Amino acid sequence: MSLIGEARAMMRYIEQAWNRGCRAALLTIANVQGSSYRQPGAKMMVTSDEVMHGNLSGGCLEADLREWAKKAIKDGEPLLKGYNLSDTDVWSLGIGCKGSIEVWITPVNKENCFWKVYQDGINKNKHVSLIAEIPSGAKLLLDENKNTLIRDGDVPEELIEHEHNTSLYHKKTNTIVYEGRQFLIDPINLNEELIISGAGHDAVPVVELAAKVGFDVTVLDPRETFNNMDRFPKASHLVKDPEDTDPTRLAKKWWVIMNHQQLRDEACLKLAVNSQAQYIGVLGPLKRTREMLDNINQNFNDGPIHAPVGHDLAAETIDEVAVSIISELMAVRGKRSGQSLHGKQKIHN
Question: Domain XdhC Rossmann: where (predicted)?
Fold first, then answer.
């Protein structure tokens, strides 16, 4: 899948390249067989003056990809570059990842209004999907209702409804073959929205780390001296009083409740339970959470409540506690157990 934060960052770097008079290419993993460091949808960019941002491997492919990207920029034509990572002697780097990947490399020209529409969509936090013939680069962009926003070249819209095209519905990047032509289906997935209830000192690393791993974070706390952008520069929104906020902004979100003040915790816990939350993590002892649920006439069956919040990492400091909390959020988001990878044959599947 493609993460909107990564796509947004790559387009921002590409725009910076345009502004300094350079050209750029966008690189997307189109297909993976076996083991790979990144999965389909992962992105990086390369400019004509050899600036790179992003990564598609652990550092073993980027130098070669830069050269192929420069070729695509120079020729003005997209290309598909494949790598067999099973060979331990690839470029004498001893990679041996036991897999193969294909990377679609396409020039992103300032003059092509397709990329302006693409950038506008992701900057406005819209769920858009790119469908591109590979390697030719004929493409179209769809909105969340599968309406065509813009077309650049010959892409049959009928393939959207094609019985083999499940990528759009499952929001996964994939390649399909339709009428003898290969297409990249690349839905841009929106970030999950996380509400941190409490703006204490221990909330600072939680907000920072959550933003780094792809959550859009709202901090909820009535205390202006604590709840401000100086303390939470990575937060997308700051809310002092939920009653002053559109209720839909708080509905179906992820919550971490860490006010360290029981009445505020109870109020926020009740709000979270009644908002069809996707996840509710409560900091503090299990006994305290049970007491709060009793006080608000709720129970653990009334919502996806995780208490105490976090993974058992022997966390002590506020930074360690933040890692514990965010690691559990990532595991739940990715539908994973959160257990050690030791002995696991496949990491991503």
Answer: 194-329
Question: At 33, is the secondary structure helix, strand, or coil?
Answer: strand
Q: Enter the pTM of the model.
A: 0.82
Task: Report d(CA 303, CA 291) in Å as an integer.
Answer: 16
Same structural domain for residues 75 and 129?
A: yes
d(CA 269, CA 292): 8
State the chain's maximal CA–CA distance in angstroms. Answer: 68
Residues 291 and 315 in one domain: yes
295 and 257 assigned to the same domain: yes
Strands 237-239 and 254-257: unpaired
User: Which of 49-84 are b and which e, b meaning 16 or more Cβ less than 10 Å from the residue's Cβ?
Assistant: eeebbbebbeebbbebbbebbbebbeeeebbbbebe
In one-letter notation, the amino acid at residue 298 is Q
* Helices 4-19 & 113-123 angle (0-180, nearest 10): 130
249 and 309: one domain?
yes
SS3 assignment, position 134: coil
- The answer to whether position 341 is within a domain reads no
Judge whether 118 and 188 are in contact, CB under 8 Å: no
| Digit-coded pLDDT (tens) for 51-62 | 999 999 888 899
Phi, psi of 76 (to 5 degrees): 70, 25
